[in-house]
Amino acid sequence: MEDLRAQLEELKKRLEVFEESIDPVDEVMLSIKARLRRKLEGGKLPELDEEKAAKTLKALANPDRIRILKMLSGKPMGFKEIKEALGVESPTVSHHLKLLTKTGMVRKGEGYGISQNGRLFLRLLEIITALEEVEE
Length: 136
What we know:
Layout: H1 2-20, H2 27-41, H3 50-60, H4 63-74, H5 79-86, H6 90-102, E1 106-108, E2 112-114, H7 116-131
Antiparallel strand pairs: 1-2
Protein backbone atom coordinates (compact mmCIF):
# COMPACT_ATOMS: atom_id res chain seq x y z
CA MET A 1 0.00 0.00 0.00
CA GLU A 2 2.87 2.39 0.82
CA ASP A 3 4.43 1.62 -2.56
CA LEU A 4 1.15 2.52 -4.29
CA ARG A 5 0.97 5.80 -2.36
CA ALA A 6 4.56 6.61 -3.30
CA GLN A 7 3.78 5.92 -6.95
CA LEU A 8 0.69 8.11 -6.76
CA GLU A 9 2.68 10.95 -5.19
CA GLU A 10 5.33 10.60 -7.91
CA LEU A 11 2.60 10.72 -10.57
CA LYS A 12 1.11 13.84 -8.98
CA LYS A 13 4.56 15.52 -8.97
CA ARG A 14 5.03 14.65 -12.63
CA LEU A 15 1.60 16.09 -13.38
CA GLU A 16 2.58 19.35 -11.65
CA VAL A 17 5.75 19.56 -13.75
CA PHE A 18 3.64 18.79 -16.82
CA GLU A 19 1.17 21.55 -15.85
CA GLU A 20 3.95 24.11 -15.53
CA SER A 21 5.15 23.39 -19.05
CA ILE A 22 1.71 23.83 -20.63
CA ASP A 23 1.04 26.92 -22.66
CA PRO A 24 -2.03 28.44 -20.97
CA VAL A 25 -3.70 29.16 -24.31
CA ASP A 26 -3.69 25.50 -25.30
CA GLU A 27 -7.20 24.55 -24.20
CA VAL A 28 -6.80 20.92 -25.20
CA MET A 29 -3.79 20.43 -22.95
CA LEU A 30 -5.67 22.15 -20.14
CA SER A 31 -8.52 19.71 -20.74
CA ILE A 32 -6.08 16.80 -20.42
CA LYS A 33 -4.80 18.25 -17.17
CA ALA A 34 -8.29 18.62 -15.72
CA ARG A 35 -9.32 15.13 -16.78
CA LEU A 36 -6.17 13.58 -15.30
CA ARG A 37 -6.65 15.46 -12.06
CA ARG A 38 -10.24 14.16 -11.72
CA LYS A 39 -9.14 10.60 -12.46
CA LEU A 40 -6.31 10.80 -9.91
CA GLU A 41 -8.61 12.04 -7.13
CA GLY A 42 -9.80 8.46 -6.67
CA GLY A 43 -6.22 7.37 -5.99
CA LYS A 44 -5.48 5.77 -9.34
CA LEU A 45 -6.42 5.77 -12.98
CA PRO A 46 -9.30 3.48 -13.88
CA GLU A 47 -8.47 0.08 -15.29
CA LEU A 48 -7.82 0.05 -19.03
CA ASP A 49 -10.84 -1.02 -21.08
CA GLU A 50 -9.12 -2.97 -23.86
CA GLU A 51 -12.19 -3.07 -26.13
CA LYS A 52 -12.76 0.68 -25.90
CA ALA A 53 -9.05 1.37 -26.42
CA ALA A 54 -8.95 -0.86 -29.51
CA LYS A 55 -12.04 0.82 -31.01
CA THR A 56 -10.54 4.25 -30.41
CA LEU A 57 -7.22 3.27 -31.96
CA LYS A 58 -9.04 1.70 -34.91
CA ALA A 59 -10.87 4.97 -35.49
CA LEU A 60 -7.51 6.78 -35.56
CA ALA A 61 -5.73 4.15 -37.67
CA ASN A 62 -6.55 5.69 -41.04
CA PRO A 63 -5.00 8.82 -42.58
CA ASP A 64 -8.33 9.97 -44.02
CA ARG A 65 -10.00 9.82 -40.60
CA ILE A 66 -7.19 11.90 -39.16
CA ARG A 67 -7.60 14.34 -42.06
CA ILE A 68 -11.31 14.59 -41.21
CA LEU A 69 -10.47 15.46 -37.60
CA LYS A 70 -7.99 18.09 -38.79
CA MET A 71 -10.54 19.61 -41.17
CA LEU A 72 -13.27 19.66 -38.54
CA SER A 73 -10.93 21.26 -36.01
CA GLY A 74 -11.05 24.35 -38.20
CA LYS A 75 -14.81 24.46 -38.70
CA PRO A 76 -17.87 22.24 -38.88
CA MET A 77 -18.45 20.79 -42.33
CA GLY A 78 -21.19 19.09 -44.29
CA PHE A 79 -20.91 15.59 -45.73
CA LYS A 80 -20.46 16.81 -49.30
CA GLU A 81 -17.77 19.27 -48.25
CA ILE A 82 -15.85 16.50 -46.44
CA LYS A 83 -16.24 14.17 -49.44
CA GLU A 84 -14.92 16.78 -51.86
CA ALA A 85 -12.00 17.72 -49.60
CA LEU A 86 -10.94 14.07 -49.24
CA GLY A 87 -11.59 13.15 -52.87
CA VAL A 88 -13.09 9.76 -51.99
CA GLU A 89 -16.43 8.06 -52.64
CA SER A 90 -19.50 8.61 -50.45
CA PRO A 91 -19.54 5.11 -48.88
CA THR A 92 -15.94 5.61 -47.72
CA VAL A 93 -16.74 8.98 -46.16
CA SER A 94 -19.82 7.47 -44.48
CA HIS A 95 -17.70 4.67 -43.03
CA HIS A 96 -15.09 7.10 -41.70
CA LEU A 97 -17.68 9.41 -40.15
CA LYS A 98 -19.54 6.47 -38.60
CA LEU A 99 -16.38 5.27 -36.82
CA LEU A 100 -15.45 8.76 -35.66
CA THR A 101 -18.99 9.40 -34.43
CA LYS A 102 -19.24 6.04 -32.61
CA THR A 103 -16.04 6.77 -30.71
CA GLY A 104 -17.25 10.25 -29.78
CA MET A 105 -14.58 12.14 -31.70
CA VAL A 106 -17.07 13.68 -34.11
CA ARG A 107 -20.57 14.89 -33.41
CA LYS A 108 -23.35 15.24 -35.94
CA GLY A 109 -25.75 18.15 -36.00
CA GLU A 110 -26.61 20.19 -39.05
CA GLY A 111 -23.17 19.17 -40.24
CA TYR A 112 -20.23 17.39 -38.67
CA GLY A 113 -18.07 18.93 -35.96
CA ILE A 114 -15.16 17.80 -33.88
CA SER A 115 -15.93 17.01 -30.24
CA GLN A 116 -13.78 17.80 -27.23
CA ASN A 117 -12.57 14.19 -27.31
CA GLY A 118 -11.74 14.53 -30.99
CA ARG A 119 -9.66 17.63 -30.26
CA LEU A 120 -7.94 15.79 -27.45
CA PHE A 121 -7.03 12.80 -29.61
CA LEU A 122 -5.91 15.04 -32.47
CA ARG A 123 -3.65 16.95 -30.08
CA LEU A 124 -2.27 13.71 -28.67
CA LEU A 125 -1.46 12.54 -32.20
CA GLU A 126 0.34 15.83 -32.85
CA ILE A 127 2.37 15.37 -29.67
CA ILE A 128 3.19 11.73 -30.40
CA THR A 129 4.33 12.47 -33.95
CA ALA A 130 6.37 15.45 -32.77
CA LEU A 131 8.20 13.37 -30.18
CA GLU A 132 9.50 10.74 -32.50
CA GLU A 133 9.31 9.72 -36.11
CA VAL A 134 7.19 6.61 -36.54
CA GLU A 135 8.82 3.89 -38.61
CA GLU A 136 6.79 1.43 -40.63
